[in-house]
Amino acid sequence: MKRILNVLMLLSGVLLTVGCSSIPIEQHAQPSFARNQHQPSHLKDVLAASLQQHSGQSGFAIISEAQQALQSRLAMANVAEHSLDMQYYIWHDDLSGVALLSAIYRAAERGVRVRTLLDDYTVLTADADLARIANHPNIEIKLYNPYGKRRSGSFARTLAFFGEFGRLNHRMHNKLMVADNQLAITGGRNIGDEYFGLSDRKNFVDIDMFAVGPVVHDLSNSFDRYWNSDWAVSIDSIRSFDPFSGELEILSAAEIEQVLQQRMQGYPTAPYTIEMDRQQLLAQVETIPSLLRWSHATVTADPPRKDLEQQLEPLAVIELLTQLGANAEHEILISSPYFIPGTIMVDGLSQLNQRGVEVKVLTNSLRTNDVAAAHYGYANIREQVLATGTKVYELRTDSAPGSLTQPQSKRGVELGLHAKVAVYDRRWVYIGTANLDPRSQLLNTEMGVVVDDPILAQQLAKQLLGLMTQKSAYRLHHQQAATCWFWIDNNNFEQQCSEPNVGWGDALMMKLVELLPIEEQL
């Protein structure tokens, strides 16, 4: 029933008349920019020798393990001396979200300027907490394309969404964290327990990347462009604009620290130690140079006002991925959690296979997909994709990627795929936020980094191919007018020529999505 309601709500939005904008206008907002990379800092000292040795190049390291992904962000918040810039689609009010709030608040107490830009689509549950810490003179929090009204309750926000569908349907899907304009993390992970192996319901297979060197300057420029956009509005201005937001209890710095610590202690015990000690986290930062591969890279990011500028500028991320695909000569490995290729992309896949380029795509199965409507859209084009010769793999909920996702004590929790990565000819690596679907192409803003490095490409290819084994994923074949799923279970080879785990409601929704004009919304 929940899946049916989700699709019906999506359809309702398509049918509504586009509303007028109600974003608060900040009369006295001043633009701000990334801090100078030449400012002395401990982080600069840690990276100095490596940067000098690899002058003109940037350094990269893949972050696959869930625990490392969280600890790296906490370490960045603790090592920062001048600035922390963060840009996320989701920031959950849970253990990992509160831990990072605590870390950035402590950074602000040390004098670090903190700029946090969040998409407003999922912020409601943490709204008061964010506004409260934004009272700190060193912290500024902005919301991208905000709802404007902060009325409590998801129903009111749903009404607002439908009332201004034309504007609010555009979301910021970027994910980025930069410390002192020296060290960055970008990739697929949002801030929430399911991205760091901490959830008791579902945890995601996801991939991020460390970046240092000249590429960080480009990432910071992308952040600044969004931060200074007219769709990025301070949370203080939004709450002032809305008389329904309620009074905000003002707490002292000590009281806020106490509240955050109490909140962390109130969550279930984590399956691994979440290190909050600053000295221990600083020691982790010291190890980063030994992890890095050095090469040249390209940062790609959509314009902040994709709704207006897509007619004036190339669709940066999708255009670059299309170009990389067209230039491939031997092999393309892709992980796209939501995979809904349009007619042009299907034709492109066919041409690649005709040229002898092997294309392998890993995506979610119905059971692992956290957005059911996206799976319905994918299911309706799946046979066309298989007909091109593309090899398709669907992650199983009982996949065994090991520490890539979950520590030992959490391995009974279901899995989902969230990594948006690709490897081209075992030379070029893409790690970013874009799915191969209409929403990433037309509606959401996306970003990513393309690195030219065969060794990094081999590292990522090994991880992707490991996830594509039949012990971790279904391998799909189209044979005798039917699509069949093949997998290995307890060393036994299994096959089924009907989609696994599909109930009558799922079958109905697949047919409904096929008939309705909502493909661009998926």
From TrEMBL:
It comes from the Bacteria. It holds the Pfam family PLDc_2. PROSITE patterns: PLD, PROKAR_LIPOPROTEIN. One of its GO terms (molecular function) is phosphatidyltransferase activity. SUPFAM superfamilies: Phospholipase D/nuclease. GO terms for biological process: cardiolipin biosynthetic process. InterPro entries: PLD-like_dom, PLipase_D/transphosphatidylase. Residues 168-195, 413-440 form the PLD phosphodiesterase domain. This is Phospholipase D family protein. It comes from Ferrimonas lipolytica.
